[in-house]
Each structure stands twice: as C-alpha cells, then as structure tokens.
Amino acid sequence: MLNGKNILIGITGGIAAYKICELIRMYKRENANVKVVCTPNALNFVTKLTLQTLSQNNVAVEQFEITDFKPEHISYADEADVFVIAPATANTISKISNGIADNLLTSIAAAFKKPIILAPAMNTNMWNNPFVQENLQKLLNHGFISVSPESGYLACGVNGEGRLASLDKIFDRTVEVLLDADKPLKGKKVVVTAGGTVEDIDPVRFISNYSSGKMGIALADEAFFQGADVVLITTKEVQKPYKTVKIKSALEMQTALTEEFDTSDYIFMAAAVADFRVKDFSLNKIKKGDSDTMTLDLVKNPDILQYLCNKKTTDKPIIVGFCAETENLIENAKTKIQKKGCDFIVANDVSRKDIGFSSDENEVYVIDKNLEAKKFEKQPKTAIAREIIGEIYAKSGNLCAHK
User: Quick check: 190 pLDDT over 90?
Assistant: First the structure.
C-alpha cells in the first residue's frame, strides 16, 4: 500500500510516545520508508535505539546536524511525502502555529510544504484550553490535518478527552493522504457486500454462517483508499468514512443491491448469503415440546449473484462473485462463473483454518470469463484485497492496477 512512500514521523514529549513504536511497524509492514525526528523531551518516554531499530534509519534529535552540506531540517522536509507528528503536544502545536522553530522538529514543520498530519495527545484540561484550541484551528485553517484525540483513561489518572487516537485511525489517515494524488478509482462507484446473512426462525433463533465479513470490509477499505465512491452493504456493525448500509437477511441485501446497481461501476459480492430461509417466521419463541425432533420448512433465498448478472445489460457494472469451497476449489469456481455469468470469480478454501472464516489472512484464486486463474498466495486480507482489486481492474480494461 505504501511502497516507495517516504514518511517522516515527529515524536514529541508526551507519554503516548511509546505507542508510536507500533505505528512505525505498521508503516514498515506496508513497505514505506520511515524516518523519525524527536524533540529532546520525547526521549524521556522512548529510546533512540528502539526507534532506530524499528525504522531502520537514524533518528534525528538535535538542531543543525549538517549532512552533505545541507541543513538537516531542509533535507528532511524535501525527502518526506508526509510529516506525521504523533503525539502532538500542546507545546508543539502552539509553537508551530506561531512560527516558532526552536528545535529540529518545529524547524522541519516550518519548512515543510507537503501534508502534515497532527495526532494530538494531552491532558483533558490542556486539550480544552482555549489557547491550544485556537492554535490548532490556525493550523487546520492553513491545511494541516488532525486526527482528533479520543476519550478514555489518561496517564494523569482521569477519564476524558485527550487520549491519542487509535493507531489504525492515524495509519488510515496517512494512507488516505498519501494516495490522494494517485487514486486510480477516482470517479468510480464500487459496491461491496460483506458478512453472513441472518435468516430469523423466531425472535430468538436464526440461520446463518461463520462469515466474519473481514474480506469484504478489506475490499471496501482498499477501494476507498484508491479514490472510489464506496458503498458497503454489510451484516456487521462498522463505522467507516464511506457509505455503509446495514442489512440482515438475503432479501434485504437484494433490495440494497438493486438500489445501487444502476449507478455502480464494480460490484464485489463477498458476503456469504444463506441459501435458505424459513418459510414461516414465528412471531413467538417456538417451544421444544415433548418431541425429540423439530422440522423447519425452508424455502430458497434468491440467488442474488445470478439476479445481478441477469439484470446486467451492458458492460457496466463489472460483477465479481466469490466462491467459498471446502473441496474441488478450482473446478467448483469455474463451474460457478460459467453458470452465473459474472465477470470474475474469487475462490478460496474455507476448510483451511489459517485462511478460512474469521481468519486475518487469505489465499485466493481470481478466475476470469476465459477460465484463466491467477493465484495469490497467503497473506493478510488487506493485502489480498489490493491484489484482487489490482487484478480485476487491470483485466477489466477500465482502470489500471494499483501498486
């Protein structure tokens, strides 16, 4: 996701500094080149050696350490694609907003012409101080980006606002900023389904499956990072910066998809849709009675993938089916794409615990209409999502793959 991107992290003197070690690892896992600059006080909370080991680069602290006859603060400002200051203390926010450059970090900020992301973290009273808020607002008015702190238990022993935002939020905002200038899906609408549908039997029982929705959500996230107008139709409770439609049953999913169909460019059917629902829903809890058995009358749910493929009359939208199998993976997937008529099928073996339902990793085959299959080896579902989107968009002829 961040291959070849240069990220400069600025760490200031707050207790949340220790959390930034994991943020560095998150950037490195996505192949970014990470450099770190600290205020002198930051090293009271995290060691220089730790930061150097994790970033695999020297850590800069002192002002005017000259390298190759170029002032260091200018060198860092020129090289980085984004400057992430986390944690950003009240002191540092106020200095930058007033043009004060009395250490290396604030000097870099003064010279930096590309995006600067602030992740404030401080005591609740400091966060609510009107002068701190005014200084932060000045920076936001000049194009700085803030990942707002959260409420929670603080190091000072109180509960309140001021806790460093989750690392996932800081990471996602960084990715969004870095990819903003290179978004191949800009102007395209991508619809993704995720999770296992739920078919009620009575008010306390239901029919469902083990789908966690992780693969579908990863696809929606990746499409959003690439600039798409995303609609996630899901059975899971999620909070995302794009449109989400919470549904429960197969019939509700079909209705939601029908509403989005005509304006969609790509539809990813990653949800696990129940094949059957009960014929007659009981308004009251069904009592077990004296019988040792109970019979439920089931009726078929609509085949939503088939329904969408039949509805399609032009090249748009590209429809991608998903095939979760426990045996004969490739054969069953090829049969399914021929039967349904979708543009692509993504197949994975859910009998394997390491890549099956609820796992964080996956291994898939992407099969096109010509029955050509390309395998993507086991890796995190976030990475698999990029591979799937890249392969399908490249082959669809409309969008270039995102690398």
Answer: yes
222 in a structural domain: yes
Q: State residue 357's pLDDT score.
A: 82
Identify whether 62 is part of a domain.
yes
Structure confidence at residue 387 (pLDDT): 92
CA 62: distance to chain centroid?
36
pLDDT, tens digit (0-9, with 9 covering 90-100), for 27-64: 999 999 999 999 999 999 999 999 999 999 999 987 65
In a domain, residue 286? The reply is yes
Report the pLDDT value the prediction gives residue 63, as an integer from 0 to 100.
Answer: 62
Q: How many domains does the chain have?
A: 2
184 found inside a domain: no
Are residues 18 and 114 located together in one domain of the fold? Answer: yes
Catalytic residues: 156
Give the residue-averaged pLDDT of 382-386.
90
Q: State whether 273 and 214 are in the same domain.
A: yes
| Same-domain check for residues 152 and 271 | no
* Beta carbons of 7 and 35 less than 8 angstroms apart: yes
Residues of the chain with pLDDT > 90, as a percent, come to 63
Among the candidates 179, 207, 225, a domain finishes at 179
Task: Output 147-156 pairs: Cβ under 8 A, ≥24 positions apart.
Answer: 147/86, 147/117, 147/118, 147/119, 147/173, 148/120, 149/119, 149/120, 149/121, 149/122, 154/123, 154/124, 155/15, 156/123
Q: What is the mean pLDDT of residues 146-161?
A: 81
If you write DSSP's letter for every residue of 55-120 in order, what string do you get? HTS-EE-STT--BTTB-HHHHHHHH-SEEEEEEE-HHHHHHHHTT---SHHHHHHHH--S-EEEEE
The answer on 202 and 152 residing in a single domain is no
The strand ranges marked E within 121-198 are 145-146, 150-153, 159-163, 189-194
